[in-house]
Amino acid sequence: MAKNVALHLIKRPSGGPINHDMFERKESETPALKDNEFLVKQTHMSLDPAMFGWMTDDRESYIPPVELGDVMRSSGVGEVVESNNPNFKVGDRVMGMMGWQQYAISNGQGLNKIEAPVSDEQVLSVFALPGLTATQGLLKVGQPKSGETLIVTGGAGSVGSIVGQLAKAEGLRVIGVVGSDEKADWIVNELGFDAAINYKTDALEAKLDELAPDGIDVYFENTGGPIQHHIFSRMNAHGRIVVCGLIADYSKAEPAPGPSWLNVIKKRLRIEGFTMPDHFGEIPELLQLLTPYVMSGKIKHRAHVLDGLDSAVEGLNMFFTGENKGKLMVKL
Amino acid sequence: MAKNVALHLIKRPSGGPINHDMFERKESETPALKDNEFLVKQTHMSLDPAMFGWMTDDRESYIPPVELGDVMRSSGVGEVVESNNPNFKVGDRVMGMMGWQQYAISNGQGLNKIEAPVSDEQVLSVFALPGLTATQGLLKVGQPKSGETLIVTGGAGSVGSIVGQLAKAEGLRVIGVVGSDEKADWIVNELGFDAAINYKTDALEAKLDELAPDGIDVYFENTGGPIQHHIFSRMNAHGRIVVCGLIADYSKAEPAPGPSWLNVIKKRLRIEGFTMPDHFGEIPELLQLLTPYVMSGKIKHRAHVLDGLDSAVEGLNMFFTGENKGKLMVKL
To answer: Per its record, what are the GO molecular function terms (chains A, B) (predicted)?
Structure first.
């Protein structure tokens, strides 16, 4: 038993920023453990763009929304502090869906033990959703070939930064689109991208012409926004577009139109969307693809760590403003 | 030697209808045959939407445009009437690219002999570009599964009518979008489609809701136009969109925007374009897939035959107006 604190979703967003009115803070004693259950004290919880979808009651979404009144959904890392489950002992570190709360009770389903000597930050930045998403999207959907040119929007984001590094490791020329000079500097000078575009200050068309004079073969889309049309019109024949996120449209009542499909015919393009819940069964395989790159030092990360449960609310808005520098997470 | 008549392209279209000013009619004597050459008297020539691309000087197009001054490009069927080539004898029937002219000289490259007892109309309607395009697009790109729902725009067109019949033969539920009640009647009562939508007169959203209450799995796009967005918003998870043609946009200076990619993520859609020139090497395999369906009577066709070389010019505009009833071709 422990004193739990949790944020419950009580109001859905309807466009515009996320605010504290949408959540209720509840304190409670954790209940006594049943057979096979164990209690996890969460140490870091992850903030991800997918959460906007979870907060919205969109029947068309690929996973059900968080019900009003329920603890907000999130993944995290924690330590077992009490256990009635022989497979999870006190002191074990685990990762999985734990929600916006200090303590979570589990029977083990959907939680994975962390055996390797990696930090919470590395787990949430690389081995959890961002790294799996980047690996599935780039290697399985994007089918990159050495020598090709890849452009990734949200290039300094949690997924984009890994996509770019994986693509470099696969021998591609990599351009990242970012929203600040600081991020541009980071992806080029720290992560090894070939070039960066600051979509807020650069002349997009001229810059794209300069950086991709021979066109673009793989376009990994995390953001949407006006640059989408400029990139699309520069796709090479047989180009592949991996649609992973459209953060620019998540807070809009009406999404911006996409490009005409005329180029889809002329260039024989493939535009393909994916989401990780379809591929949870393939996680072992994805980790096998990703881990060697991490172990050989080819995948660097940067965590942007907020402090305390309440900071999660404001933290989500950083996805719209682009203020976050690296993978967003909350230290509990 | 024979008296040839040909239409040469002398002016490119710039949006709007095709007219006689764009062509020059030239009469000439066919030159003497060189070694290995033979002379074909064309009997029927095909009119295809791809011709708009060939007439336009679009450097991004997948095959080079017709040069100004050259005979307009087209495929056709004909009979060998003189030969210096041991493989093509006088009396042989051949199909291939022959151009807008009465007589064509060839060394055999790109021409195929027609050995089977099929009419010119059947060759151009089923075994040539339309049937190959439908087979490649539906079976290879669309990956249809029995029990799924398919919608095809241009459902009474040369490609669309074959797509729908192939899909029926594969066990799908098939809806065709057409531009007249006569065509709707034809595809449902003659070709066996499950239903038709007249995009000019039906209330599109209500009709789609009625005919596809469980959504759409495969969307074979031949036309574009406003119905595109309504179909797109009804795609099921893991749906496939085969982009084969956008005739509604070919005559516009600025193509209409496409749908937002938000649904591409939510529904994990694949949008893929293709054109036959990439797959000419696979024609034997495609014919192997197609022929059994034709031979068992599952692929019916309807030819819309215009009379005489000059009728080709006006004929092309029928693709915009939708006046043609069946595969357009010109009898010479």
So the answer is: oxidoreductase activity, acting on the CH-CH group of donors, NAD or NADP as acceptor
On chain B, the residues whose CB falls within 8 A of the CB of A61 are 266
- CA-based nearest residue in chain A for residue B270: A272
Q: Is B271's CB within 8 Å of A274's CB?
A: no
Chain B touched by A57 (CB under 8 Å)? no
Q: Which ipTM value was assigned to this complex?
A: 0.86
Three-class SS state of B79: strand
- pLDDT tens for chain B, 332 residues long, are 789 999 999 999 987 899 999 999 999 999 999 999 999 999 999 999 889 889 988 766 667 899 999 999 999 999 999 999 999 999 999 999 999 999 999 999 888 888 878 899 999 999 888 999 999 999 999 999 999 999 999 999 999 999 999 999 999 999 999 999 999 999 999 999 999 999 999 999 999 999 999 999 999 999 999 999 999 999 999 999 999 999 888 777 788 899 999 999 999 999 999 999 899 889 889 988 998 898 888 999 999 999 999 999 999 999 888 888 889 999 99
Q: How many helices and strands, by DSSP H and E, does chain B display? A: 11, 15
Is B178 buried (19+), middle (13-18) or exposed (0-12) by CB count in 10 A?
Answer: buried
CB contact set of A93 (below 8 Å; sequence gap of 6+)? A77, A78, A79, A80, A113, A114
Cβ neighbours of residue A250 under 8 Å, at least 6 residues apart?
A: A49, A52, A53, A319, A320
Domain A129-278+288-292 maps to which CATH number in 3.40.50.720, 3.90.190.20, 1.10.3720.10, 3.40.190.10? Answer: 3.40.50.720
Q: Would A3-115+303-331 and A129-278+288-292 be classified into the same CATH topology?
A: no
Domain limits, chain B: 3-115+303-331, 129-278+288-292
Give the distance, in angstroms, between the CA of residue A101 and the centroid of all CA atoms in the same chain: 20
- CATH code of the domain occupying A3-115+303-331: 3.90.180.10
Nearest by CB to A259, which of B258, B268, B274?
B258
Residue of chain B whose alpha carbon sits nearest to that of A271: B271
